[in-house]
Design brief:
The protein is mainly alpha-helical. The chain is built from 4 helices and no strands.
Length: 78
Amino acid sequence: MSDRSNLYRDIFSGKNQEHWDKQQEELKHMPNQKWHKYVSFIKSGIRILGYGLLIVNLPIAVGVLIFSEVIGIIEELV
């Protein structure tokens, strides 16, 4: 039998149930990918705005770019 066949046999026979239970438990602690994507898009939009403001008003642009970095920290926590 091939390695793949052995793996499927073990999975369906329940030999690796402890392994699968452990993986399912670890998945519960995974970040929410949907919200991570949304926050990332928001952060990117704010960065684009900040870089655009560089030619108009430097202090406001710096504030917007710093704000985008704060959102980047929040992004990693989602």
